Prior knowledge:
Layout: H1 2-25, H2 38-41, H3 67-70, E1 76-86, H4 89-102, E2 106-114, E3 124-133, H5 137-144, E4 149-159, H6 161-187, H7 191-223, E5 224-233, H8 247-275, H9 277-315
Parallel strand pairs: 1-5
Antiparallel strand pairs: 1-4, 2-3, 3-5
Helix pairs in contact: 1-6, 1-7, 6-7
Amino acid sequence: MKRKLFAIGLAAVLLLAGCGGGSSASNGASSGNSMPAPDAAEDEGFWEMEAPSAATDMSQGGGEDGAVYQNPRAKLIRRAELDIQTERFDESVKALNQLVASCGGYFENASVRGGGYRDANASRWGEYIVRVPAEQYNLFFNGAGELGYVTSKSESSEDVGEQYYDTEARLKTQRTKQERLLALLERAESMEDIIALESALSDVEYQIEMYSSELNRYDALINFATFNVYLNEVGQVTREVGETASLGQRMAAGFQASGRNLGEGFQNFLIWASYNIFLLVVLAAVAAVAVIVGKRELKRLKKQKEGPEESTKLQL
């Protein structure tokens, strides 16, 4: 009788483990209209709440948070991107480092291109991926605008609360199954039961590891906002007039741009000439020799042509 009860309990636990694995496999296919797991339905009535929309209005530009940010059940992944022009690249980079440190963030990636040994004054541009605590989002966003002239910026947020709590509930279910399997394993008597229980435990441990990794990934994205900062060094910050400006303002801006381009072009030519001065000297010498030789050849040909004409005149 005891053996029969143990077999029934083992079969029930294995059936639950199979159902848990099957539900996780079908989660991706039914994510648009998923049903809660049994444990999730009891989790403080979450599934009775209407999740906030993931399409959030970000037009405030890092200003006051809306209701979605104040929802304690919301799990927001926030991202922003800024393109910044600066005439003082080194100072802007230093200010960026200080801003990241003051916000308690870190650089996930940082790269600087441009410049060089032969062209040390060439324009440089930096690409930075910065992670800052979510509660410091507005502080960093507003502070980054002080690094230079912001040519463009964008913000986005994604509410992953439904996926997060669903994964959390599944993890809780798998841990409950693990506890039951361990309890059965302690009472197992035959080698056949031990092997079956260990196999089921292996599957459950795999599910636990998978759900734990997924939750850790969500936590990393939720707790730290992601900023993509593009810092461009320019000789002069772009300040073009808009289409709503008057005709005189737009024409004045056009003349100024033409004069600036002409001056920059002449400066670039002088710089190119300074780098290629010896080549220019050689080319000038070759050109001078070619001119001298050409003049002499023309005189010789002219004399040859005048010679027969004079002899003909003498004969006449």
